[in-house]
Amino acid sequence: MSYNTIEFGIADGVATLTLNRPTSLNSFNTEMFEEIRAALKQVKDDPAVRCLLLTGTGRGFCAGQDLSDRSVAPSEQLPDLGASVENNYNPLIRAIKGLQIPVVCAVNGVAAGAGASLVLACDLVFAARSASFVQAFCRLGLIPDSGSTWHLPRLVGHARAMGLALLGDKLSAEQAEQWGLIWKCVDDDKLMEEAGGMARHLATQPTFGLAMIKRAINASYTNTLDQQLDLERDCMRLGGRSEDYREGVAAFMEKRKPVFKGR
Amino acid sequence: MPAFADIIVSPIQSGVLLITLNRPQARNALRTQLLSELADALDQAASDEAVRAVVLSGGPSVFAAGADIKEMAELDMVGTLTDPRQAFRNRIDRFPKPLLAAVNGFALGGGCELAMQADIIIAGDNARFGQPEINLGIIPGAGGTQRLIRAVGKSLAMKLVLSGEMLDAHAALAAGLVAEITLPELTIERALQLAKVIAAKPPLAVRLAKEALLKAFETSLESGLNLERKAYNLLAATEDRREGIAAFMEKRKPTFTGR
Lengths: 263, 259
Prior knowledge:
Chain A has ten helices and ten strands. By secondary structure, chain A is of the alpha/beta class. Chain A folds into two domains: 6-203, 2-enoyl-CoA Hydratase, Chain A, domain 1 (Alpha-Beta Complex); 207-253, Lyase 2-enoyl-coa Hydratase, Chain  A, domain 2, CATH 1.10.12. In chain A, strands 1-2-3-5-7-10 form a six-stranded mixed β-sheet, with helices on both faces. A four-stranded mixed β-sheet of chain A has the order 4-6-8-9. In chain B, helix 6 (144-152) packs across helix 7.
């Protein structure tokens, strides 16, 4: 399948999805949503894919909604942004969060609005030193969507979440790392090497177990400790039955490198 | 035991019989033959003393996505009036032993109604319940309007039946439609485990408890309490009651015989 607004390819167990509308800072339009949806479906359905790497071309990662796209243009009739969120943004975030493989994000430039939200939905985020994060919504009379009001306070705490969302100031990649918004800030020319290397590494790991780790950590935000302890028990039960666990133990005993299959 | 095609009846383990709906290619659509086989299997389980509880599952990914629409489309009014499926449903209703449903994925229309015929529903966190009949110009026809409202209350039952919208596992748990949710990979296992716990209880007490609980939907409080008292008194005559109390006093594990 060929795409116009993204690049998509699978190699070494890693699916790489690159937002590719560099002239509009990779902002979302209807076509891009459709293409991302198709690509993510392929990622979900292909058991050979064991890690997703998300990045963008050009000087930006993603500037959020393309304001020139008709679906949200202010016209005589007031646009229903709720419908746009319901039909495009929420499914995207649910699809990313629901992937049963690690999702690595390489933020190559500015991530603004829903572009920043998309970053926060990923599991391990690397950002180029020149990249930045902007919760731009407050300047337009809107609110951070696509999960941002959920992710922000959990990642950086209430005070910083409020500051970022209410002020809409630019947050540098370095500050983002210091605040715990992202995993790591790296030099621009090392971004794809580091993030790509991490993605290829993860794709060789026991990804069935990694998926359960994601599941458990994500569930922790709404679970009580008792529920979480039960969930850990259940995940351990499944992990103990996995081929990867058997292989991991065998390789340790035989003092060799394990070969995991993600099962 | 006759050979079944639409269901799989697993060997009894620790008093528990597992019945799996087996039309995965049709997402376990409940055609007449399937319901007929299920009613037969439950009738046999009812009279088999070795069976103490039954778990009904649709397998790892779907419970039952509804009736067989093709089959349904062929029925005119006379056809629906003489539809044998109702009789099979009634036989499933009368199963006197604990019936647990292990629900993963869709339990829609007739599938949701079948799950609600069970005494306890254990759901995977990917389960989705719904009565989408309204989309076909019909209404639930196998208890959906009656059982759902008793399980989740008026407002939510109305919403589900009138809009055809689905209820996810977490919402179903909050509404009381299901007893527990678990990881989808463990749903059947958890249902079997709970069934085994129940299977180890004194069967006469289990049977009367189920009967008394179900009567609560059908009687006034006074007659319900009356029935409960009668059932309670009846159990005073059982060996299992003596054994239960003696074991408790002697701080040992009871051995129940079903007498």
